[in-house]
């Protein structure tokens, strides 16, 4: 995976977040948190784009999106 170019961006749909905190618990680099019972990215620069948050979110409120500018 080190040789793969990952052109994805972490996105959040706060309106869909129910504040369960599952994504926070599964984040291996601990960049996610809850503020006012909604998901929050504490330090986007430390995100390794592993997709664990997206995989575990029951409400599809957090996801990795392909960079539309890269082709």
Describe the structure.
- This protein has 71 residues and is α+β, with helices and mostly antiparallel strands.
- The chain has a single domain (13-66), classed as Alpha-Beta Plaits, CATH 3.30.70.
- The protein has helices at 22-26, 52-56; strands spanning 8-12, 32-35, 38-41, 62-66.
- The strands form two sheets. It has a two-stranded antiparallel ribbon with strand order 1-4.
- Strand 2 and strand 3 form a beta hairpin.
| Poorly predicted ranges | none
**Shape-level CATH architecture:** 2-Layer Sandwich
Spatial order of the strands forming the largest sheet = 1-4
Helix proportion of residues, in percent?
A: 10-25%
List keywords for this structure.
71 residues, alpha+beta, two-stranded antiparallel sheet, Alpha-Beta Plaits
């Amino acid at each position: 995976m080190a040789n793969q170019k990952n052109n994805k961006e972490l996105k959040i749909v706060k309106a869909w977040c129910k504040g369960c905190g599952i994504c926070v618990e599964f984040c291996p680099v601990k960049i996610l948190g809850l503020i006012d019972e909604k998901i929050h990215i504490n330090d986007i620069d430390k995100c390794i784009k592993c997709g664990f948050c997206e995989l575990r979110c029951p409400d599809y409120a957090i996801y990795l999106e392909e960079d539309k500018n890269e082709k």
